[in-house]
């Protein structure tokens, strides 16, 4: 058994950048039958973050599943990132995670101690979320992959979707962009230890604190930013709400060096998939450079929440988030529907 193999050396793509491109996925899903159930309050028809199923007048179940190949070599950290990413969908829907099950694909060439460390990393973040792991499924696979199936609960009135943004709302983003680009640079051994530490810190930060900080504030729509990029998830919010979204590129928080690496062409494959699928739904001002365009399409692993909310509530939210992160900012606004769903200024 080998304990010295780099996990990222066993993968072609990493993190959320490994997800199948949205154009392929859409072409498959549209030909599958649609299930009807009056208790299914949120399904995949509007591309929301998780399903919501009503079990009683005062309780709904929120369920999601997410797993991917490693973007870091340390197995414990990989487990933490994968679990953080999977838990995020529950927070994006306004719920609290309660139960999780492991999903693990593991190469036979690796020592079982590495499996232990991956699972231990996942356990640490589930415990931090106040949830429990109660089982799972493991198979042999030459490419390591890990994630969770997560179940949460909420009152029906607490549920948030990505399709209720209102004209006049401002958009708040809670984590910086550039995660996919920096992970690609890390695989090429271009990052400093400080840069690796910073992007890892972002990927292992639970969105629990971002969710808890909007208690008693008016949130009209919410989603988390993962493999489909800020533009892609913003498009889902805009189209689902029958609105347009304006993004102020100068206000968008971006990890240090992400723009520089993008300018060098250090771009994950997932960015090109996003660009091909989204090229006809957004437009941007001529003064927005190409590297900014690439960052806005960059697939994020364990990214932040994107919130659509009244400006007054947003200002209070920013104040509450100061103790957790310096990255939370107002990055745009919601308008009546225009000729493009996403307008980048």
Automatic annotation (TrEMBL):
An annotated Gene Ontology molecular function: ATP binding
Gene Ontology biological-process entries: selenocysteine biosynthetic process
Matching InterPro entries: PurM-like_C_dom, PurM-like_C_sf, PurM-like_N, PurM-like_N_sf, SelD_I, SPS/SelD
Residue sites binding ATP per the record: 19, 46-48, 66, 89, 136-138
Catalytic activity of the protein: hydrogenselenide + ATP + H2O = selenophosphate + AMP + phosphate + 2 H(+)
Residue ranges of domain PurM-like N-terminal in the record: 48-153
Ranges of residues in domain PurM-like C-terminal: 166-344
Binding site for Mg(2+): 49, 89, 224
Identification of the protein by name: Selenide, water dikinase
């Amino acid at each position: 058994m080998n304990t010295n193999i780099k996990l990222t050396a066993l993968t072609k793509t990493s993190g959320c950048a490994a997800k199948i491109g949205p154009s392929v996925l859409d072409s498959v899903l549209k030909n599958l039958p649609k299930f009807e159930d009056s208790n299914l309050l949120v399904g995949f028809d509007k591309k929301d973050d998780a399903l919501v199923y009503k079990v009683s007048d005062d309780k709904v179940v929120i369920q999601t599943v997410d797993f991917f190949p490693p973007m870091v070599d340390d197995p414990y950290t990989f487990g933490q990132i994968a679990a953080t990413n999977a838990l995020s969908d529950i927070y994006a829907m306004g719920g609290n995670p309660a139960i999780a099950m492991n999903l693990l694909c593991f190469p036979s060439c690796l020592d079982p101690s590495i499996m232990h460390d991956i699972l231990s990393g996942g356990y640490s973040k589930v415990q931090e979320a106040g949830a429990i792991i109660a089982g799972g499924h493991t198979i042999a696979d030459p490419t390591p992959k890990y994630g969770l199936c997560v179940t949460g609960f909420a009152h029906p009135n607490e549920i948030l979707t990505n399709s209720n943004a209102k004209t006049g709302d401002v958009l708040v983003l809670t984590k910086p962009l550039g995660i996919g680009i920096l992970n690609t640079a890390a695989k090429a051994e271009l990052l400093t230890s400080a840069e690796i530490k910073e992007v890892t810190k972002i990927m292992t930060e639970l969105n629990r604190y971002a969710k808890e900080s909007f208690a008693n504030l008016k949130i009209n729509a919410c989603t988390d930013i993962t493999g489909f990029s800020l533009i892609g998830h913003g498009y889902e919010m805009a189209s689902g709400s029958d609105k347009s979204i304006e993004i102020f590129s100068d206000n968008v928080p971006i990890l240090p060096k992400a723009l520089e690496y993008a300018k060098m062409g250090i771009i994950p494959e997932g960015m090109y998939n996003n660009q091909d699928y989204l090229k006809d739904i957004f437009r941007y001002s001529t003064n927005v450079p190409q590297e900014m365009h690439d960052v806005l399409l960059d697939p994020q692993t364990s990214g932040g929440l994107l919130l659509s909310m009244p400006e007054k509530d947003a200002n209070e939210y920013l104040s509450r988030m100061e103790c957790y992160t310096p990255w939370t900012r107002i990055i745009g606004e919601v308008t009546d529907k225009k000729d493009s769903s996403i307008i980048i200024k």
